[in-house]
């Protein structure tokens, strides 16, 4: 019963992550076209449901599948906006969905082979890595060739025809390499799980580091604000104009100085501000060095235990 409940929770988390990522990419990629977000969400749901039903033991694959779909949607949007700007929306949607359908159809045909691959839950041998990524070469060549479309094929009809031909070619590559695509996504998902497991072990030391970091930000922000009130002239210069600072501006300058980013929109104007900023910048570097060392030490100690 507990195992079933745990699987259900994992399933719902995977569904929520997949849906959220699809909506985020869909809305951000084409904010003026909400139907694209709906298409991406439907595609993600179909792909997730397909693999969950086909390979029920490979639930961890959902994160990698959602990530792969997000990358594909991003690349498709970039190439379509750059090289196929005059394509009608339905034709663009058809081109987008073709490789996904080809991948799912090929995965269904090779169900037995992919089921063993998904159930293994282990990284592939590094010697096979070039073969796992070989399918990216023809897809990259197709994408690179699409930059010649505006030069050789002006007009909507020609662009639409070339887009569909290009996406059909991508579909053939993906269908032929479905096993390698799944293996690549599985490796990515397993590495993600390892990465997030390590992050969970570092939560407490990282929280302690961020607590000290935020304390220094607040203390120096208060110092900047008090010195600015106590001195006759302004302490900082904003966009080239020296003036008094608000507490929110003092906090912003303190964060930028402690992190040693230095955007340049706010700079020290008075000698006292330069001295304080120099001290804070040095403390920021030391804090990063010692904080990182302590986090790694805590991680190694927990691994040994």
Q: Briefly, what is this?
A:
The protein is an all-alpha fold and 305 residues long.
Distance between the termini: 31 Å
For the record, the count of structural domains works out to 2
What shape does the CA trace take?
extended
Number of helical segments? 13
Counting copies of identical and different chains, the oligomeric state is single chain
Structure description:
The structure is a single chain. The chain has 2 domains: 2-201, no CATH class; 203-304, Helix Hairpins (Orthogonal Bundle). Strand 1 (236-238) and strand 2 (241-243) form a beta hairpin. The protein is extended. The relative contact order is 0.08. A 3-stranded antiparallel β-sheet has the order 2-1-3. It contains 13 helices and 3 strands; from the N terminus they run H-H-H-H-H-H-H-H-H-H-H-E-E-H-E-H. Helix 2 (34-54) runs antiparallel to helix 3, helix 3 packs across helix 10 and helix 11 (203-230) crosses helix 12 (247-258). The chain has helices spanning 2-29, 34-54, 61-83, 89-109, 111-120, 129-132, 136-145, 149-152, 156-176, 178-201, 203-230, 247-258, 271-304, and strands at residues 236-238, 241-243, 266-268. With 305 residues, it is mainly α.
